[in-house]
Amino acid sequence: MRLGRTVLVFLAAVVALSGFGAVVVGSVLLWSYGTQRDADGFLFGGVNQFSSAGYAVTSTSVDLHAKPGELVWLPGQDLTAVRIDVARTDDGPVFVGIAPRPDVDRYLRGVTHDRITDVRLLPFEARYDQVLGGHQPESPTRVGIWIRSEAGRGTQQLTWQVQPGQWTVVVMNADGRPGVSADVAVGVKSPLVLPVAVAVASVGVIVLSLGVGLLLLATRRRARADWTEPYRPPSDGEPSPATTGRAR
Fold first, then answer.
1. Which residues pair with 100 in a beta bridge?
2. Using one digit for the tens of pLDDT, what is the confidence trace for 102-136?
3. H or E element: which one contains 16?
4. In a domain? residue 163
5. Residue (of 111, 106, 92) closest to 144 by Cα position
6. Which of 16, 89, 140, 230 could bridge across to 181 with cysteines, CB 3.0–4.6 Å?
7. Could you give the CA distance from residue 49 to residue 179 in angstroms, rounded to a whole number?
8. Total-model pTM
9. Strands 113-121, 56-58: parallel, antiparallel or unpaired by DSSP?
10. What is the largest CA-CA distance in the chain?
11. E strands in the chain
12. Domain carrying residue 167
């Protein structure tokens, strides 16, 4: 019986902690949705710096394997829009563009650049694969591979409605010169954020309540078992409770 109660208490604690974690995640999402969006409804993380001694910084390929129409959650509403805010750290003219991955690979073939392979947020750290080459690329503003692009001084804002395909984001100096250093912020806008946040928080509350209920059940059973434990008379040769005191 004691082993069974111990197992029940352990399982109840695991369930309660899982529910508490879901409540925290859902609450953070709700807080972010309510306080961290800009005037256009984009939910942003922090501003982080990316740099390369070469001619460009590129993202890893973004693969969105879907058929037309599958990225729509409600009629007339796009599932996700992404906005990328980019500014050169020296206030010079900057370029940011997004293009199909094969087109970017051809454009930067033989060109020294850095490809982002991993990003850690706390603390921020970007890891790159350096691709070496001996060619100087044509100015990015003169090539026609981009489905969306922005260029100029100050903060450039590129907004893109997510589409199926394989895409790469490229940040360069607008004149195509080497030595790229830019502050980048990425924001997302989606009608799924609020429903997902509410769903996660709601499931967390249910699971947390279940875990607390199991804990109460386990402790109540233990208390009842201790209270109703039957009296066991002493065996032969064992002193009774009334005679265990010091003889007078």
1. 167
2. 999 999 999 999 998 877 655 567 788 889 988 99
3. helix 2-35
4. yes
5. 106
6. 89
7. 13
8. 0.64
9. parallel
10. 110
11. 43-44, 48-52, 56-58, 62-64, 72-74, 77-78, 81-88, 94-100, 113-121, 124-131, 148-152, 156-161, 165-173, 180-189
12. 40-190
